[in-house]
Amino acid sequence: MDQERELPLALRAAYMALHRCTEAKFASHGVTADQFVLLLALEETGTLTQRELADRISSDPSTVRAMLVLLEKNGFVRRASHPTDSRAKTVELTATGKRTLRKLWKVGQSIRDDMYGAITPKEAEILIRLLRLIPNSLSKEKTLV
């Protein structure tokens, strides 16, 4: 097996399978898989700036902004001026956003069950640790371009 070729293919296949399943489960709730990740990041960390949120979910600020506009229109998030930085906006979940996230978490449980059914808890721990190494190593590439 040529690991240099297989790793990108395997990562893409895993991501796409997760994304497709999540999109299908959440479609009737009016939330995309990417929006779910954004809501989850806000729930974990509380109030963030839009920039911090983009960094937290490994996305670009313009994509995050577009998602936030839709989520705010649906009443899931609240954006406000940053108290000390006039150029920044802070973002937090609303009560509706928190309720929606709890519902989506339950709806997505079967996906997580399937993923965790394919590997042991120890393998999951190792996989998470290894996957977290990749963005850090690739961020060095960005500075070289």
Sheet with most strands = 3 strands, antiparallel
What's the structural domain tally?
1
As a percent range, the share of helical residues equals over 70%
CATH superfamily: Winged helix-like DNA-binding domain superfamily/Winged helix DNA-binding domain
Gyration radius (Cα, Å) is 17 Å
What CATH first level would be assigned? Mainly Alpha
Shape: globular
Low-confidence stretches: none
- How many strand segments? 3
SSE class: mainly alpha
CATH topology: Arc Repressor Mutant, subunit A
The strand line-up of the biggest sheet is: 1-3-2
Succession of helices and strands? HHEHHEEHHH
Distance between the termini: 30 Å
Strand content: 5-15%
What's the CATH architecture name?
Answer: Orthogonal Bundle
Overall mean pLDDT score?
91
Protein name: DNA-binding MarR family transcriptional regulator
InterPro entries: HTH_MarR-typ, WH-like_DNA-bd_sf, WH_DNA-bd_sf
Keywords: DNA-binding, Transcription, Transcription regulation
Organism: Aporhodopirellula rubra
What do these coordinates show?
- By secondary structure, this protein is mainly alpha-helical.
- The protein is built from 7 helices and 3 strands; from the N terminus they run H-H-E-H-H-E-E-H-H-H.
- The chain has a single domain, classed as Winged helix-like DNA-binding domain superfamily/Winged helix DNA-binding domain (Arc Repressor Mutant, subunit A, Orthogonal Bundle).
Task: Pick out its properties.
145 residues; Arc Repressor Mutant, subunit A; 3-stranded antiparallel sheet; 3 strands; globular; DNA-binding transcription factor activity; HTH_MarR-typ
